[in-house]
C-alpha cells in the first residue's frame, strides 16, 4: 500500500511543485506542536497559514445571549435540546489564542505564517486592545468568523470598519469566514429568504446539529 504522501508525488511533479501552501490551518490547543508539525509534513505542506480563533464560550452563559442563540436555532429548524451545550463545548475547544499562533510561527518561520483573531462581538475597548496585541505579536493577518464569534456583520459595521482600517494601516490580510461551521450555528440569512434557499439553509443547520433525519421518499 502506498504511503499517503506518495499519492501526492505525481500531481505535484506534474505541476512542478515541491509542496503545498495551505492558507487555512487551525492549530487547536488540543494538538501538540509535534502533532501539528507531523500532520503538516505528512500532507506535503511546505507553508501553512495558522489561524487564531478569538471565541468566548462564556457568552452563552449570559441569559440574553443564550435566549437569542436558542431563538435563532429554533427559527432555523434546529430543535436539538443539547444544541446549546454542544455549542458551548465547540467554542471551548476551538478557542486558539493569538499568543499560541505567534509562538508557533516564531518557532517555525519556514513552516508557518500566523494570523491573529479578534472578536467583534466584544466591547470596542477589547477590540482595540486585541488589535494592538496582534500588531505587537507580529502576526500577518486577522481572522474573523461571524458564526463562532456570534456577531452579525450587518450589526457590527462600526467595529468591522475599525478592524479593516487597522488591517489596511498595518498592511495585514483580513480573512473573513463566509461558510457553514460544525454544530448548530445561526447563519447570516436575510429576513425574507427565498423559500428554497430558506429550506436548504434550515436543513444544513439541522443536519449539522444532529437533529434532522431524512424523510422517506414517496413511492
Label the structural class. alpha/beta
| Helix content, binned percent | 40-55%
User: Can you name the CATH architecture?
Assistant: Alpha-Beta Barrel
Rg over C-alpha atoms, rounded to the nearest angstrom: 20 Å
E-strand count: 5
Mean pLDDT: 80
Determine the oligomeric state from the structure. single chain
Strand content: 5-15%
CATH topology: TIM Barrel
CATH classification class = Alpha Beta
Largest sheet, in brief, is: 5 strands, parallel
Q: Within the largest sheet, what's the order of strands?
A: 1-2-3-4-5
Q: Helix and strand string, N-terminal first?
A: HEHEHHHEHEHEH
Number of helices: 8
Summed up:
This protein is 44% helix and 12% strand.
Task: List the defining traits of the structure above.
single chain, 219 residues, alpha/beta, TIM Barrel, 5-stranded parallel sheet, 8 helices, disordered C terminus
Protein architecture, described:
The protein is of the alpha/beta class and 219 residues long. The chain has a single domain, classed as TIM Barrel (Alpha-Beta Barrel). Helix content is 44%, strand content 12%. The protein has helices at 6-14, 33-42, 63-75, 83-94, 98-107, 124-136, 157-170, 195-209; strands at residues 20-25, 45-51, 112-117, 141-144, 173-176. Strand 4, helix 7 and strand 5 (173-176) form a beta-alpha-beta unit. The N and C termini lie far apart (44 Å).
Amino acid at each position: 500500500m502506498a504511503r499517503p504522501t506518495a499519492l501526492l508525488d505525481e500531481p505535484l511533479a506534474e505541476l512542478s511543485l515541491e509542496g503545498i501552501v495551505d492558507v487555512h490551518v487551525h492549530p487547536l490547543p488540543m494538538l501538540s506542536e509535534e502533532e501539528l508539525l507531523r500532520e503538516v509534513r505528512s500532507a506535503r505542506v511546505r507553508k501553512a497559514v495558522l489561524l487564531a480563533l478569538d471565541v468566548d464560550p462564556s457568552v452563552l452563559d449570559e441569559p440574553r445571549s443564550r435566549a437569542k442563540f436558542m431563538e435563532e436555532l429554533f427559527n432555523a429548524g434546529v430543535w436539538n435540546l443539547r444544541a446549546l451545550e454542544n455549542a458551548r463545548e465547540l467554542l471551548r475547544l476551538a478557542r486558539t489564542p493569538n499568543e499560541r499562533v505567534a509562538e508557533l510561527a516564531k518557532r517555525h518561520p519556514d513552516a508557518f505564517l500566523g494570523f491573529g483573531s479578534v472578536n467583534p462581538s466584544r466591547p470596542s475597548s477589547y477590540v482595540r486592545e486585541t488589535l494592538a496585541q496582534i500588531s505587537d505579536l507580529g502576526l500577518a493577518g486577522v481572522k474573523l468568523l461571524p458564526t463562532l464569534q456570534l456577531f452579525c456583520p450587518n450589526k457590527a459595521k462600526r467595529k468591522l470598519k475599525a478592524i479593516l482600517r487597522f488591517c489596511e494601516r498595518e498592511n495585514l490580510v483580513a480573512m473573513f469566514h463566509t461558510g457553514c461551521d460544525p454544530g448548530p450555528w445561526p447563519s447570516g440569512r436575510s429576513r425574507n429568504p427565498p423559500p428554497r434557499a430558506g429550506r436548504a439553509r434550515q436543513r444544513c443547520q439541522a443536519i449539522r446539529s444532529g437533529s434532522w433525519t431524512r424523510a422517506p421518499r414517496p413511492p
